[in-house]
Automatic annotation (TrEMBL):
<keyword id="KW-0031">Aminopeptidase</keyword>
<dbReference type="Pfam" id="PF04389">
    <property type="entry name" value="Peptidase_M28"/>
</dbReference>
<feature type="domain" description="Peptidase M28">
    <location>
        <begin position="247"/>
        <end position="445"/>
    </location>
</feature>
<dbReference type="InterPro" id="IPR007484">
    <property type="entry name" value="Peptidase_M28"/>
</dbReference>
<dbReference type="InterPro" id="IPR046450">
    <property type="entry name" value="PA_dom_sf"/>
</dbReference>
<keyword id="KW-0378">Hydrolase</keyword>
<dbReference type="InterPro" id="IPR039373">
    <property type="entry name" value="Peptidase_M28B"/>
</dbReference>
<keyword id="KW-0645">Protease</keyword>
<protein>
    <submittedName>
        <fullName>Aminopeptidase</fullName>
    </submittedName>
</protein>
<dbReference type="GO" id="GO:0004180">
    <property type="term" value="F:carboxypeptidase activity"/>
</dbReference>
<dbReference type="GO" id="GO:0004177">
    <property type="term" value="F:aminopeptidase activity"/>
</dbReference>
Length: 667
């Protein structure tokens, strides 16, 4: 237990899942399209709420977004404003198919004004050239069904409208292409996300349910179907808005950060009105308890940040590099507090990347374990479900990427849940639960409060906690290594043995850094002896596992009648890779933007689950002007499983070609 009983009870008596659910319901009414007035209006509402709680120093920073300007490698989008958008069937029946005023995601973000009557034609997914071979789409509206990714609309626009003269697109979520099982009545959230240079050519898009798409497909086969699209909408230069406030600490030189993106489509209740509301309720709770002297002023400052997801982080971190520098650790809340019966989910604690080992993972995990097993948390209108949580390896996909990247280097854990209704009309407040919200909030608030107040003498307890987790994780990892050897064929035995040794070595270094990270909370070095002892233990355990591995390797060699090799002989390619030391150029700050990730993807990286995205993030983070390409290949192999040296080299060479990296030769 990291907080004393009284502090814990004081917090739990004030923190309210009911309030959080009310806040998220209010937020979910806004169509919070990034860089548009909906987000700004919502932000002003939240600002008003925060000041009514007595929170001072609330700041909104605004940065230019025009669909051209880039911050770091991340492009901005154009602002989008809409007055109305309706789609009607005119023949063979009069029927309204979509209306922005009723369901905002019915209109694709980025759509422009139109008043046009045109025939509807079916183009399958609308992504492939062959789908257009036997159908004339010129002057028509195309019906197309695609995957969950919101950039799908822009791709179909380019194929059907820009390349072939269609007047607009009508989209639905194709259950066969979607990552999750989708009932037929979901309307997907799609955006054009186009560059400003394309704006003149972009027309409009509407979204309907799969059920309605099936109905239209049938009608097209029997008769000519004509639709009438009416929109008043435009794209224009706008701003990216970031809101922040603080609970000031006694010591202003150190901060703990909570992040939750406020922007998104309407309703976006779980994604991410839930995270945004979580931060509001945590801020309210702390402000009230501190004002009423039930909690002391914290030692370190606690900061709250509501960014515009992805594109807001780069300009904010660049402008506020001083804040980033004094931030010890952060938690990003993106989709929390759902009713697990409805979302069939669990709370994921997404760890910091392998390249950023840190005690924050252990602190958050400890609070989650306590909430799952010990602390009774209920809420009047909530379900009484157990907290299911999982501690999972780092993955990107939200704002914690920007903090964990080496440019900013703020160790950041993400709390997030899956949701089959993600990016659809059905991401509604009804799927959120006040008890689960309170549990998620307590995990975040407990962790933040603990870190905001821990001092040198209390850091000994944290060292012990980290020590126990380090030894546990190291043992789990060694089981994976022996399994790898166990499942070897004669042809893969030697390779797997060296991959296993590499994994042991990399995890040893990584876990030593994890133990050492506690040192930043211990300026008086009260716990240094503890940490040294834990590291000594870790070295002993590592030596034991290495010996075990050598023994089993020798055993398998006898079984397969192979000669066991004592040392690894590096091939020419590997020796070459040992001499090349890549370094990021001054142009390359922050994580690689999504479009560049796709463009620079070396062919061999696995595409399933977008894992290549996370491997590339890790490679970029490991490029530090000290590690060689061979070191980097070994580190990512320890974490993600063996990666080919050619793929890693190719990716780094691609970065070099884009002038994002320079490769120095070691002499
Ligand atoms: Zn999100």
């Amino acid at each position: 237990m990291l907080l004393d009983n009284q502090t814990q009870q004081t917090i739990l008596n004030e923190l309210s899942g009911e309030r959080a659910k009310d806040f998220l319901t209010m937020i979910s009414r806004f169509d919070r399209v990034q860089c548009s007035s909906g987000t700004y209006e919502c932000m002003q509402m939240v600002q008003g709420m925060l000041s009514s709680f007595g929170i001072e120093n609330i700041e909104i920073e605004r940065y230019i977004a025009d669909g051209r300007k880039e911050y770091w490698t991340w492009p901005t989008s154009l602002g989008w404003e809409i007055n109305y958008g309706e789609l009607w069937m005119r023949h063979p029946q009069q029927m309204k198919l979509a209306d922005y005023d009723e369901i905002p995601v019915s209109v694709v973000r980025g759509s422009r004004s139109a008043d046009v009557v045109a025939e509807l034609v079916d183009v399958g997914t609308g992504l492939e050239d062959y789908e257009y071979e036997n159908v004339d789409v010129h002057g028509k509206i195309v019906l197309a069904g695609g995957p969950t990714f919101s950039n799908y609309a822009g791709k179909v626009q380019r194929q059907a409208v820009i390349k072939r003269g269609a007047v607009g697109v009508l989209l639905y979520l194709n259950p066969e292409l979607s990552l999750r099982p989708h009932p037929g009545n979901l309307i997907p959230y799609y955006g054009m996300w186009h560059h400003a240079d394309e704006d003149e050519q972009i027309t409009f898009g509407f979204c309907i349910s799969y059920r309605n798409a099936v109905m239209l497909k049938k009608m097209i086969k029997q008769d000519k179907v004509t639709l009438h699209a009416r929109l008043d909408a435009k794209n224009q230069q706008s701003t990216i808005d970031q809101m922040t406030c603080v609970i000031p600490g006694e010591n202003l030189d150190e901060e703990i950060l909570l992040v939750a993106h406020l922007d998104h489509y309407q309703p976006g209740a779980h994604d991410n009105a839930s995270g945004s509301a979580t931060l509001i309720e945590i801020a309210r709770t702390l402000q009230k308890l501190i004002t009423n002297k039930k909690l002391p002023k914290p030692q370190r400052t606690i900061r709250f940040l509501w960014p515009t997801e992805f594109q807001g982080m780069a300009p904010w971190l660049e402008k506020n590099s001083d804040i980033a520098q004094r931030t010890i650790a952060a938690i990003n809340c993106d989709m929390v507090g759902s009713n697990f019966l409805k979302t069939k989910s669990s709370l994921n604690i997404i760890k910091t990347p392998f390249s950023r080992p840190h005690y924050i993972n252990d602190v958050v995990e400890n609070f989650a374990r306590q909430v799952a097993n010990e602390v009774v948390i209920t809420s009047p209108r909530g379900e009484s479900l157990p907290l299911n949580y999982r501690v999972v390896p780092y993955r990107g996909g939200s704002d914690h990427m920007f903090l964990n990247d080496s440019t900013t280097a703020v160790p950041t854990v993400m709390l997030g849940e899956d949701n089959p209704f993600y990016h659809t009309t059905q991401d509604v407040p009804d799927n959120l639960d006040s008890t689960q919200l309170k549990k998620a909030m307590f995990i975040a608030l407990g962790s933040v409060w603990y870190l905001a107040n821990i001092n040198s003498s209390q850091s000994t307890q944290l060292s012990a906690l980290v020590g126990s987790k380090v030894l546990r994780d190291f043992s789990h990892m060694s089981c994976e290594v022996s399994h790898l050897l166990h499942s070897s064929q004669p042809s893969s035995l030697e390779q797997n043995y060296w991959e296993g040794r590499n994994k042991l070595q990399c995890y040893l270094q990584q876990n030593i850094a994890r133990v050492d990270s506690v040192g930043e909370l211990d300026p008086k070095n009260d716990g240094v002896l503890w940490r040294e002892k834990i590291k000594e233990q870790l070295h002993n355990v590592a030596a034991l596992y290495e010996e075990q591995l050598q023994d089993s390797y020798a055993g398998y060699c006898r079984e397969f009648t192979l000669t066991a090799k004592e040392t690894k002989e590096l091939g020419e390619e590997q020796q070459q890779a040992q001499k090349i030391i890549p370094q990021r150029t001054s142009l390359f700050k922050g994580p690689l933007a999504i479009h560049l990730n796709f463009a620079l993807k070396a062919s061999g990286f696995p595409e399933e689950n977008m894992k290549f995205f996370d491997i590339q993030f890790e490679i970029v983070n490991l490029i530090d002007g000290k590690r060689s390409i061979w070191d980097i290949r070994n580190a990512v192999s320890a974490y993600f499983g063996a990666q080919s040296l050619q793929d890693v080299t190719q990716f780094i060479k691609n970065l070099e070609q884009e002038k994002l990296v320079v490769c120095n030769m070691e002499v």
